[in-house]
Amino acid sequence: MSTYQDTKVMSPRQLNRYQKDGFLSPVKVFSEDEARFFRSQLEEYESAHGSVMKTPYRNKPHLIFPWVAEVIRDPKILKIVETVLGPNLLVWGTNFFIKEPNDGTFISWHQDSTYWGLSRPDVLTVWIALSPSRRNNGAMKMVSGSHKMEQMPHTDTFEAGNLLTRGQKIDQQVADEDMVWIELEPGEVSLHHVRIIHGSEPNTGSDRRIGLAIRFIPTDLCQVNGVKDYATLVHGRDEYNHFQHEPCPKVSLGESEIETHTRIAEESFKLFYQGTGREPKFGG
Ligand SMILES: O=C(O)CCC(=O)C(=O)O
Q1: pLDDT tens-digit map of 34-49
Q2: Mean per-residue pLDDT for 214-235?
Q3: What's the pLDDT score for residue 279?
Q4: How far apart are CA 280 and CA 103, in angstroms?
Q5: What is the pTM of this model?
């Protein structure tokens, strides 16, 4: 599948920028053909099931679709992530973020770190564009340098259309002049730090906006919120075993893959809903 030969480590300049701004974008990782292939895999699943991809498979799709399991192990991505987090790497989560034209869905201003319960803010998201992601169709926006702030208070809104589990949003306003648009073409990725303040508006364009977010952590991190937590070892060695290791799916939507995904995704939803008094919503 990997045909794009531009395997490279992040340059020192790019690393400096990531460390200073808390994000780096755009980074060309996949060719347009590869991005088209990924999108076609997603859309074949959707055609076969007669509906757009929904929960539960938007969460941790790397446990159910072999093509996603391959993407999270892509050497080009791992080289970049290794430069930031070191050689021993787990994937803690994956998410499809899909906005249909004019469906009104959005993401409120938030820091990812708020409810994840990870012991240190050394978490890097690689967000891969499978469609164009531009201002008019709901591209992400980030507040440069905000990753250097502490964890900020958030309010859970549970508002309709908000793609975050709790609809959580930071309690303070973000000024227009402080935000940077993260516009991407298919095959490009952005990187962001777990404390960066970010969000996105509804898609008012004519094409879908499709992103696949991969959450990388070094193996020495642990889950501090008292739940059983899982992750996939994608590079190096895990000498800590703080997370239960996830298996790699062999076939798409196989019986054992569905069983594994259900069991693990349910645990992760418990974490996301912890303390809300609400029942996790696993279904469509
Ligand atoms: O896809 C989006 O618009 C936002 C995604 C996001 O919040 C994330 O990947 O952390």
Answers
A1: 999 999 999 999 999 9
A2: 95
A3: 73
A4: 23
A5: 0.95
Cα 239 to ligand 1 centroid, rounded to whole Å: 30
- 140 CB less than 6 Å from ligand 1? yes
- Pure H helices in the chain: 12-21, 32-49, 66-71, 75-85, 255-273
Rounded-to-integer distance, Cα 231 and Cα 273, Å: 19
Greatest extent of the chain over all pairs of C-alpha atoms, in Å: 50
Distant-in-sequence, close-in-space partners of 28: CB < 8 Å, separation ≥ 6: 6, 187, 188
Band of residue 276 on the pLDDT scale cut at 50, 70, 90? confident
Percent of the chain with pLDDT over 70: 95
Q: Confirm or reject: Cβ of 211 under 6 Å from ligand 1.
A: yes
Q: Among 106, 163, 183, 189, say which to mutate for ligand 1: greatest number of ligand atoms within 8 Å of CB.
A: 163
Radius of gyration, alpha carbons of the chain: 18
Predicted local distance difference test score (pLDDT) of residue 235: 98
Residues 6+ apart with CB under 8 A from 16: none
Quote the CA–CA distance of 53 and 42 in Å, as a whole number: 8
Query: Both tokens of residue 79?
Result: 């080289």
> Counting Cβ atoms within 10 Å, is residue 17 exposed (0-12), middle (13-18) or buried (19+)?
middle
Domains and CATH numbers, the chain: 12-273 (2.60.120.620)
What value does the mean pLDDT take over residues 3-14? 68
